[in-house]
Amino acid sequence: MRTLFDKGHGVRCMAVRVAMPLLMAAPLLFPTACKMAPKNDPGDTVAASEFYPPDTAALARQAAKARQSATVKDSADIFYVGEGSTRRQLQLLSYPSRRDTLSFGKARHMRVSGSADYGHVVRVSFYVSHGDTLVQRVEEIKPDELKHDAAAK
């Protein structure tokens, strides 16, 4: 014999059996959309490069970076005399870039032709003995002469 509880359970079970197909069909009755789905409607768009003026600061930075990384052919025996020169040492900066700094000792009897003051362009002759490299001769060169020699070549 069935109790009241069993009858209620049967009614609930029957309600679930009837409602289950309706619950399964409910999403089909209501249209839904995913908000995270990409929308592909470009319309009348214009590229940013056409719309905005060029960024001159960025172009200047790129040009400066290109100039720094560009290879510069320096002379092998022509230098600028650096301000770090002392009585015993001669500081030489690469010509024409001034990127590299070299420091050499002076020979006991160093010959100087012209002026070997700071900032002057000089041609240097070296004396190498037993692993030491000394400056033996310094000859001042006018930058005009260098341009003339380069044009002649």
Describe, in plain words, how this protein is organized in 3D.
- This protein is α+β, with helices and mostly antiparallel strands.
- It contains four helices and five strands, in the order H-H-H-E-E-E-E-E-H.
- The protein has a five-stranded mixed barrel.
- The longest helix is centred in the first third of the chain and has 26 residues, at 4-29.
- The chain is rod-shaped.
Structural topology:
Layout: H1 4-29, H2 48-51, H3 56-69, E1 78-81, E2 89-94, E3 101-113, E4 121-129, E5 132-140, H4 143-152
Parallel strand pairs: 3-5
Antiparallel strand pairs: 1-2, 1-4, 2-3, 4-5
What distinguishing features does this structure have?
153 residues, alpha+beta, five-stranded mixed barrel, 5 strands
